[in-house]
Specification:
- The complex is a heteropentamer.
- By secondary structure, chain A is mainly alpha-helical.
- Chain A is built from 22 helices and two strands.
- In chain A, strand 1 and strand 2 form a beta hairpin.
- The longest helix of chain A is centred in the middle third of the chain and has 34 residues.
- Chain A is globular.
- The two termini of chain A are about 15 Å apart.
- In chain B, the strands form two sheets. A two-stranded antiparallel sheet of chain B has the order 1-2.
- In chain B, helix 1 packs antiparallel against helix 2 and helix 6 crosses helix 7.
- Chain B is globular and about 115 Å long.
- By secondary structure, chain B is mainly alpha-helical.
- In chain C, helix 1 packs antiparallel against helix 2 and helix 2 packs antiparallel against helix 3.
- Chain C is globular, with a radius of gyration of 20 Å.
- Chain C starts with a helix and ends with a helix.
- Classes of the chains: A mainly alpha, B mainly alpha, C mainly alpha, D mainly alpha, E mainly alpha.
- Chains in contact: A-B, A-E, B-C, B-D, B-E, C-D, C-E, D-E.
- Chains B and C meet through helix 26 of B and helix 5 of C.
């Protein structure tokens, strides 16, 4: 049995179960749906572990392959392939989901079943996005994951949630339409040349395209991914969405949803249109640097904790863009490392911000005051992840940033210097946050606050460990998460039977 | 053996840090202190063992440990790798031994502080990071320690976070050094690009020696690294953070902001001296900046009234000496001075801390006074440290190290491009002036604090735990210098022989009066200080005014008038000048400007791109509204549209 | 014959113009009857005497009577005609007039170069029409019955609602 | 010799059509609008008869008959509506004022 | 007169017989329930014979009617939609029993008959009669608004006058075409080459204008929001779904799906652009849900016309799936509105009334969201795939400008659809007086069935496309023949 469809479908089914469990009446424990989610995630982890550790049997770069015709008239098939990149990103998703489940979603009491269903549905969409190698299926999942996320933000978010949710949806959906155009353009171009209507990227990657056309198509893809990543001129949705989303949704957004943008750029921009991507690289790198500086600068000006973290994400994602378009394997790997590290670190920061909001009912740093005295554990964690986010060597972010900078330096030292300068405001916003929330004089009239219990600390401790391992011993992850080239198909033997 | 010991050496303080952090609130203060001291103590013992091993090995022997590959990929590789050679041996000894003494002191000093666990966690973490910094054989690995010590410094400066001023100071320190870090990062990127993918110090230096780098590349790399070192060591133009950093607890100031972290810049340049040797303009720049810094630091220290700030400025000034030495190519002298400076400055800080503690946290020297009687032990220790700092001839360690620098500077010569040259004697003159000023300000402090009328009453007594380290440091700062002597006195070159047995420094060709001058300047400074502040009715034992105060000439007191014109007036002028502290203002002003600009721009209209999006939405809504107005519900109007559409359609179809 | 045709045609158009310019509804109805009669004459001249008959009987006879009935029910008086006068200012005419003229001009432009085969001489008699109607197009007749049924039901419902509810 | 060629029929029909259209666009009274509608339908019917004459085809007159039925039905329903509207709230039968549905 | 001349497609026969039976039953005893049941049975029967017939008589029909895949498909859609709408109307009539309204189902049946006649027509005459039957019944239906009779009357009057104008234009055009070709068959007059160019063009344009009016493409769309708002909710659904399917079916049959003459292209491009932008922009400012749906249906016509304008391999699939998606989703929305009205009291036509529905009626709100998302073209609804296909046709037959318009329109559309969902998620400010009328199980079933169609169609669109691939027939295969 092939594990890939199970990976996608399992969260969905678990979600439905959770919903049903949430709607059950009295005798059932209200947290049943939570347990269902936990069980689902555990099974998912088991399957993923199986995939991870049993892949030695295959020799090729693609670990698993699954294919099933879907809409034969259009040449569309449910084609899922897994390589190291998608595997590592799925691992990241699962880890963050565990983080959410342990630290954030249990607090949701209003319509918990529905919340968990939407949560898992988002996860399913994200995993599908990471696995799909059929452009239509990819686009399907790409759009699919927006809907539950929209509802999560709009229904469970904070005060200005609905505007934020609308903004989020409009931006991502609108850019998705551009991608749709590009997908169809590519498919039709292939069709015109060969007479074969297919959405299979392995086949489409071989399409000979004129430079102008490939640039156009690449731009379509790029726009969609740029909005998701986000790249600076189109980042507008992100601060609002991150700020207003409930904690779990913020974690998913920052931790994984943004990564789908990076993932898409690697797989669909750089690998599908290598020439156009290399011609576009200077602009993309410029945008990346702009993102680094602009995001960091704006982050320094925020008073809202979650907003600050959100802008810092923009800054970090600038490095990802820079790395992807630096045109070397090193930059690509740096970008992947940065994605993983940013996913872990920022997610943890959002969890902490969410915990603060749960306790103090404010996100305004002026009104939070020093928490170290009241909540040393939470504050310690906050300090650690803030430091990670400013790019402390030895932690995951630095590995990514350094590789990206190195790759960029090979291309253009000036760009790399500018990007490196972005690390100074990074220190400013991170430490500003630390000194206004954690290490500051406690505000008068603070209610007695409950610190993180030990099990929460254990979960966050795991994230910490991951970050440290990523920072000090990234070698296995690095070799593991290399994206496989599209010229090699996983499934030559599977296609023929 | 070494492969085993070196990781342990680093792990010990790290483990102590983790234990103290995790045990916050569960372990009592004594236990925490013991754990921390044990961690640092074990590493001190190990470092001594390692030194013995190294010294017993061949002369050029190096202990190498590669723990695991960090990043290996085509075009770049970095390892978590350590290397113990003689330079790093010196450094680990300083770090662990001085660190141990300071930890022991701090265990008592911080005993009653509720945040002691956090304090020791940071302190031990700092030791670990510093050890990584000095032991790393890979520049990227060094960078871990480099940033790590910065972080610990930040945490410790802002240790008493209740006062916003402290946290501001902490952040200032971090930001300033962060700029340097960015420069260092750029330098590393440049080097790794040039050397083809490795940052091993050996590889880098070999590449430099082989001429793989273009001269401009070398200059750029050296410049980047110099900026990093300047920032870390609080040299011009980054000097402003260090005095503010005195907001931290005194042991922190002693360990981080005097003995070890601020010398990391010196260490880095000394480590890469082969690279710098090829970059003559950068060397000249280093020397000039060092000389300027040492003068400026000394002058500023002369007019400070806060005990710890005096010491902080003096640290800047002494680091200036080291940079001067580095710039002149006598890196051994810089390291020597680094070591002695670690001893006496730690001593001074610790003593100051003890004094302040007993004097009810009074730091203003003008409110102290007459402590000679109440705290004789501390007085002795402070005087020992002060004389070593001033470099009183023969009996202090500071004299020998300073002498080594001075003689090195004298014979320096820079061939800059386009025929410009810079030779040593002017720099030497500045250094000598600095020596005079050093003695002047430190003894000003000594006389004001310890002589005269009693100021604030003292309470309690210095605990034994605090006095032991003081004693040890006293001995070290007085006698630690005899291992290297000027040729004029005795051709003893143990230290430079230790560092680099192949190239022992000797300045036999220099005139003997150089040594005399070097010995005389501090003495002169001491004398002037005695005249000004030490006599029973001191002229200037009051707080200098804010504005240039020209004291009225007191009639009938010829000697006084002479003093007045010779010293008081220049002093007041100096006070006025340094109080303006133009550089400090410039740097702070720039920071403030950026801050206000960002606040102005982004607080007022947050994220103008977001505004743009909102405007676009508004336009679309407006269009919709306008269109809605057409739907006024009138049938005739609707029919007119149909007719118009028919009209247009016919026209399009027929006329096309 | 031509003169007659010209006369009938012009009466038709002039009558139509009078219809849309009258202030009093009954006058307009009368002009409409005139128009329809003239149109019937035109139809006769085209050899469609059956159609002309229908035009007179159904249109001018039945439908116009319906109009007259309704106008009587509405009981329009002097105030209405003055209001109509007010509504028929030249300004109100301007835009619609231009629009209608343009449409007319465009249609005429399209028509201009038209020349078709000469129509056959033999008129189409009621017999032909009947054959066609109940032969090929018998289903259409059935459909028309449904059309009339729909109209009947609608009008009945609307009319009943007026009586019953208010 | 026919009195009307198809061409002439079209001319007349076009004129009638435009007049009817103008009537609909100009008149605010719904009764007049209905009358104008009838004029337009008559114009269309005329075209059919003319075309039937041109091709000598009875279909044209069948269509004429159908259009007649349509006109009758529309007039009937329209007048019923007019009576209704007149009774409830729009006594002036003005098409422009008193519209509840707009925007 | 041949056998073909009296050929009447079975569904038409069944529906007309049903109407007559109902009429006869009415003379015996008037009963609303019985009328509804009778009409629904008739429609189910028609559906049944539909399935029987489509297999047997795939193409060339008589000169009046034609029965092929395309006609069969659209007829099924029409009948199915009428069935759903009747189900909705049942409660509309049921909850207000002060007057006997057995004309209500009768008029629906007449309207369906007209629509079916249009769908099956192969001749101007049958097409025109069908159109008018549909139109006249709609006039009657629009006045069936019980609570606000005046609005209903006004809507009916507007519809009457405007559709009269458009009918006159259409008839004029048909007359011209008849004059040119001498036949009432569906042949675009361009094909007959013996006439000068301008007149056929004028005829085509006038016919197009008539059709555009009924389709409510933009310069001719103004009546739709007003009429839909004034009419009862099921009638609005009828307007939005049945009449549009029927007219679109005839449009496709009339103009075929091949390459069109250039002037046609130009006009259609302009109309599509205006339609998409206008419809979406108009919908932005609506506060009435029905008006909003009217505007959005205008926009959807624009999308559909893009597929119509882009001949190619994907065209037929795109049109069929889009019709299905549009029908199912729109009906779903209307069904939800009706169900809402039963549950919550107010008739659910103002968006504000939907506030907080996610918390009080999660099922209803979820169904509504699903339908709206499907209309917006977002998975998992069938609308997603439909829009995908539309874009695919646009890309295949490169129409960059129209695609840009489509994109902008979709984004704007997304906004107002989401706005409704957003409104449902807002916590209600004060609890509305809950009248809690009787729950109608049939409406719940209807909503569930429509949701299933939307979801299954979204997940397995292959079936829908596959079986209907040969659907839109081009111009009838029979060659033009002069009527003797």
């Amino acid at each position: 049995m092939n594990p890939l469809p199970a990976l996608v479908l399992l969260p969905l089914m678990g979600g439905v179960l959770a919903w049903v469990a949430g709607r059950m009446r009295a005798p059932i424990n209200p947290s049943t749906s939570w347990w269902v989610v936990l069980a689902t995630l555990s099974v998912e982890t088991l399957i993923l572990g199986m995939v991870t550790f049993a892949h030695r049997a295959h020799a090729g770069p693609w670990l698993e392959h699954f294919s099933m015709p879907w809409i034969p008239a259009m040449g569309i098939a449910v084609r899922l392939d897994m390589d190291g990149l998608s595997l590592s990103l799925i691992w990241l998703s699962l880890i963050l989901c565990f983080l959410c489940v342990f630290l954030a979603t249990r607090q949701v009491t209003a319509h918990a079943g529905a919340f968990h269903f939407l949560f898992l549905a988002t996860l399913a969409g994200i995993i599908g996005t990471f696995l799909a190698t059929d452009l239509f299926v990819f686009f399907f999942f790409w759009e699919l994951m927006l809907v539950p996320m929209f509802v999560l933000i709009a229904a469970w978010g904070h005060e200005d949630r609905q505007r934020a949710a609308m903004k989020f949806f409009m931006f991502t959906q609108g850019s998705g339409l551009l991608m749709l155009l590009s997908i169809l353009g590519l498919v039709m171009a292939h069709d015109r040349l060969t007479g074969v209507l297919t959405f299979d990227i392995f086949t489409l990657a071989q399409t000979p395209l004129s430079p102008a056309l490939s640039m156009l198509l690449m731009l379509g893809f790029f726009t969609a991914f740029a909005v998701k990543l986000p790249v600076v001129p189109v980042h507008v949705w992100l601060p609002d969405a991150h700020t207003q989303a409930p904690t779990a949704a913020s974690v998913l957004l920052a931790g994984i949803l943004l990564k789908t943008g990076g993932y898409g750029m690697i797989r669909f921009n750089v690998m599908l249109f290598p020439d156009a991507a290399s011609r576009f690289a200077p602009i993309a790198m410029g945008l990346g640097v702009a993102g680094i500086l602009y995001g960091a600068w704006l982050s320094c000006a925020q008073d809202d904790v979650k907003r600050l973290i959100a802008y810092s994400s923009i800054s970090h994602m600038g490095f990802v863009l820079l790395g992807i378009f630096s045109g070397s394997a090193m930059g690509m790997q740096g970008a992947i490392m940065q994605m993983l590290a940013h996913g872990l670190g920022t997610a943890a920061l959002f969890v902490i911000a969410g915990a603060i909001q749960d306790r103090l009912h404010t996100r305004d740093m002026n009104r939070i005051g020093g928490l170290w005295a009241a909540m040393p554990r939470l504050s310690g964690m906050g300090l650690f992840f803030a430091v990670a986010s400013l790019g402390m060597p030895g932690l995951g972010n630095f590995t990514g940033e350094f590789l990206v900078l190195l790759a960029t330096w090979h291309v253009s030292p000036a760009t790399a210097t500018l990007a490196a300068i972005g690390l100074v405001p990074a220190a400013i916003y991170a430490l500003r946050m630390v000194n206004r929330i954690f290490l500051a004089a406690p505000r008068a009239g603070l209610p007695s606050l409950e610190d993180f219990p030990v099990r929460h600390m254990a979960v966050l401790g795991c994230i910490m460990t991951f970050l440290i391992v990523l920072g000090l011993y990234p070698q296995p992850f690095r070799t593991f998460s290399v994206p496989s080239p599209l010229s090699v198909t996983a499934s030559q033997e599977d296609h023929t039977p | 053996m070494a492969t085993f010991l070196i990781p342990i050496l680093i792990l010990c303080p790290l483990a102590a840090s983790l234990i103290t952090f995790v045990s916050a609130g569960r372990m009592d203060a004594r236990g925490i202190g013991m754990v921390a001291c044990a961690g640092v103590g074990i590493s001190a013992v190990i470092s001594i063992i390692l030194s013995v091993m190294l010294l017993s090995g061949p002369v050029t022997g190096v202990l190498q440990v590669t723990l695991w590959p960090w990043m290996h990929m085509p075009g770049f590789s970095a390892d978590i790798a350590f290397m113990l050679d003689r330079v790093s041996m010196l450094m680990i000894l300083v770090v662990t031994v001085v660190g141990l003494l300071i930890h022991i002191y701090a265990a008592s000093y911080m005993y009653h502080d509720p945040g002691i666990a956090r304090f020791f966690a940071c302190m031990t973490l700092f030791v670990a990071a510093m050890l990584v910094l000095v032991l790393a054989s890979d520049l990227l690995c060094l960078f871990i320690g480099w940033e790590g010590v910065g972080l610990c410094s930040y945490l410790l400066i802002g240790f008493w976070y209740d006062d916003p001023a402290n946290t501001v100071a902490a952040r200032k320190a971090f930001y300033m050094t962060r700029m340097g870090d960015v420069a260092l990062l750029c330098g590393l990127l440049l080097l790794v690009t040039a050397t083809g993918g490795s940052l091993r110090i050996g590889t880098v230096l070999a590449a430099v020696a082989n001429g793989q780098l273009a001269p401009s590349g070398i200059n750029m790399a050296a410049l980047f690294i110099l900026v990093a070192a300047l920032a870390k060591s609080a040299q011009i133009p980054f000097q402003t953070w260090l005095p503010d950093a005195m907001a931290g607890p005194t042991p922190t100031s002693a360990l981080i902001h005097a003995a070890t972290m601020v010398t990391a810049g010196v260490y880095l340049i000394a480590r890469l001296h082969d690279l710098f040797a090829m970059a003559v303009p950068v060397m000249a720049l280093t020397a000039v900046l060092g000389a300027l810094t040492l003068l400026m630091g000394a002058c500023t220290a002369l007019v400070q009234s806060d005990l710890k700030r005096i010491l902080a400025w003096s640290t800047i000034s002494q680091l200036g000496y080291m940079f001067l030495a580095l710039g002149c190519g006598v890196w051994q002298a810089a390291l020597f001075h680094l070591m002695t400076h670690a001893f006496f400055k730690a001593l001074l800080f610790l003593t100051a801390g003890a004094i302040i503690m007993r004097a009810h946290h009074e730091q203003d020297i003008f409110r102290l006074g007459g402590l000679r009687h109440t705290m004789p032990g501390l007085t002795a220790a402070f005087v020992a440290g002060a004389s070593s700092l001033a470099g009183l001839p023969l009996v202090t360690a500071g004299f020998y190290s300073k002498e080594m620098i001075l003689s090195g500077v004298w014979s320096a010569h820079f061939n800059l491009t386009h025929g410009w040259t810079l030779s040593g004697p002017p720099l030497w003159g500045m250094a000598l002036l600095g020596a005079f000023l050093t003695a002047l300000y430190i003894f000003r402090c000594v006389f004001i604090v310890f002589c005269g009328k009693a100021g604030t009453g003292a309470a309690g007594r210095t605990s034994r735990l605090m006095s032991i380290p003081l004693g040890c440091l006293c001995i070290l700062s007085l006698c630690g210098g005899v291992i290297e002597m000027p040729d004029t006195l005795l051709p003893l070159h143990l230290f430079s022989g230790l560092l680099d047995p192949t190239a022992v420094l000797s300045h036999t060709h220099q005139p003997a009066w150089l040594v005399m001058a070097g010995a005389g300047a501090p003495l002169a400074g001491l004398g002037v200080a005695w005249v000004l502040w030490g006599r029973s009715s001191p002229v200037m034992r009051e707080i200098p005014g804010q504005a240039p105060v020209i004291c009225p000439v007191r009639t009938g007191r010829g000697m006084d008038a002479l003093y007045h014109y010779a010293f008081v007036q220049p002093f007041c002028l100096l006070a006025w000048l340094t109080r303006l502290d133009i550089l400090n203002h410039a740097v702070t002003g720039t920071g403030l400007l950026i801050q206000t600009a960002s606040a102005r721009i982004f607080r007022a209209r947050a994220d103008f791109l977001g505004r743009l999006a909102i405007q676009a939405t508004r336009m679309i809504r407006w269009a919709g509204h306008l269109l809605g107005l057409l739907h006024n519900g009138r049938v005739r109007w609707y029919a007119a549209w149909i007719a118009g559409g028919l009209c247009a359609g016919l026209a399009m179809a027929v006329l096309s | 014959m031509h003169a007659l045709a010209l006369l009938a045609a012009s009466v038709t158009v002039v009558g139509a113009i009078m219809v849309i310019t009258r202030r009093v509804a009954v006058h307009a109805v009368l002009y409409l009857v005139v128009t329809l009669l003239a149109l019937a004459a035109v139809l006769v001249m085209q050899g469609a005497s059956f159609a002309a008959m229908l035009e007179i009987i159904i249109y001018a006879g039945a439908i116009m009577v319906l109009f007259v009935f309704v106008i009587m029910m509405l009981n329009l008086g002097q105030t209405d005609s003055t209001r109509e006068k007010e509504w028929l200012r030249p300004r109100a005419w301007l835009g619609p007039g231009i629009l209608a003229t343009i449409v007319c001009a465009e249609l005429l432009y399209c028509r201009r170069p038209l020349s078709g085969p000469a129509p056959a001489l033999a008129p189409i008699t009621a017999h032909d029409v009947g054959l066609s109607l109940f032969g090929r197009y018998v289903l259409m007749v059935e459909l028309v019955s449904f059309l009339l049924l729909a109209g009947l039901v609608s009008a009945f419902y609307i009319g009943r609602n007026r009586m019953g509810r208010h | 010799m026919p009195a009307f060629s198809f061409n002439d029929t079209l001319l007349l029909a076009t004129a009638l059509f435009s007049v009817g259209l103008a009537g609909i666009l100009v008149r605010r009274n719904m009764v007049f609008m209905l009358m104008s509608l009838d004029i337009m339908l008559n114009a269309a019917a005329l075209v059919f008869v003319g075309a039937g004459a041109r091709w000598h085809d009875a279909t044209g007159q069948v269509m004429f008959l159908l259009i007649l039925a349509l006109a009758a039905v529309e007039t009937a329903v329209g007048l019923a509506l007019i009576v209704c509207l007149h009774a409830h709230g729009r006594p002036t039968l003005d098409a422009d004022t008193g519209n509840l549905l707009k925007g | 007169m041949t056998g073909h001349d009296v050929f009447l497609p079975m569904p038409l026969m069944v529906v007309s017989s049903g109407i007559m039976v109902m009429l006869a039953a009415t003379t015996w005893r008037r009963s609303v329930e019985r009328s509804f049941v009778g009409s629904m049975v008739t429609l189910v029967l028609a559906l049944a014979v539909m399935g029987y017939h489509t297999g047997r008589m795939p193409d060339t029909g008589s000169s009046l009617f034609i029965q092929d895949w395309w006609a069969g498909y659209t007829a099924i859609l029409t009948i199915f939609s009428s069935l759903c709408i009747l189900l909705m109307a049942w409660r509309d009539a049921g909850h207000d029993r002060t007057t006997l309204v057995d004309e209500y189902p009768l008029l629906f049946m007449l309207g369906t008959l007209g629509a079916l006649a249009m769908v099956f027509s192969a001749n101007y005459m049958s097409f025109f009669l069908g159109l008018e039957i549909l139109g006249i019944s709609l006039m009657g239906l629009a006045a069936f608004r019980h609570r606000s009779f005046m609005q209903g009357c006004e809507a009916a009057m507007k519809y009457l006058i405007l559709s009269g104008v458009s009918s006159a234009i259409l008839l004029f055009g048909i007359g011209l075409a008849y004059g040119i070709t001498g036949s009432l068959r569906f042949i675009p007059p361009i094909a007959a080459g013996d006439m000068p160019a301008a007149l056929p063009v004028a005829a085509t344009v006038m016919i197009l204008v008539g059709m555009f009016f009924k389709l409510s493409a933009v310069p001719f769309h103004m009546w739709l929001p007003d009429v839909m708002e004034g009419a009862p909710v099921p009638v609005a659904a009828f307007l939005a779904v049945v009449s549009k399917i029927a007219i679109f079916a005839s449009l496709v049959r009339y103009f075929g799906t091949g390459n069109q003459p250039p002037f046609f292209d130009d006009i259609l491009s302009v109309v599509i652009t205006l339609t998409i932008l206008g419809g979406n922009l108009l919908a932005l400012r609506q506060t009435s849900l029905i008006r909003l749906l009217a505007c959005s249906s205008i926009a959807h016509v624009g999308y559909l016309l893009i597929a119509f304008l882009c001949p190619g391999r994907l065209q037929s699939g795109a049109i069929t799936i889009y019709l299905l998606a549009y029908t199912a989703s729109t009906l779903g929305v209307f069904a939800t509105i009706t169900a809402f009205a039963i549950h919550e009291g107010p008739d659910g036509t103002a968006i504000m009334q939907w506030k907080g529905l996610f918390f009080s009626r999660p099922f209803l709100a979820s169904a509504m969201s699903l339908m709206l998302l499907s209309l917006a073209g977002i998975p998992p609804g069938i609308g997603f795939f439909a829009k995908f296909e539309i874009v695919a046709t646009g890309v295949e037959y490169p129409r960059g400008l129209l695609l840009c318009v489509l994109m902008i329109g979709s984004i704007i559309g997304l906004y107002y659809y989401l706005n409704i969902i957003r409104m449902m998620m807002t916590a209600p400010s004060l609890p509305s007086p809950r009248q809690n009328r009787h729950a109608r199980p049939e409406l719940t079933v209807l909503v569930i069935v429509l949701s299933m169609i939307v979801v299954i169609g979204g997940l397995l669109p292959a079936r829908a496309i596959h079986s209907l691939l040969p659907a839109p027939a081009g111009p009838p295969a029979v060659q033009d023949r002069m009527v003797p």
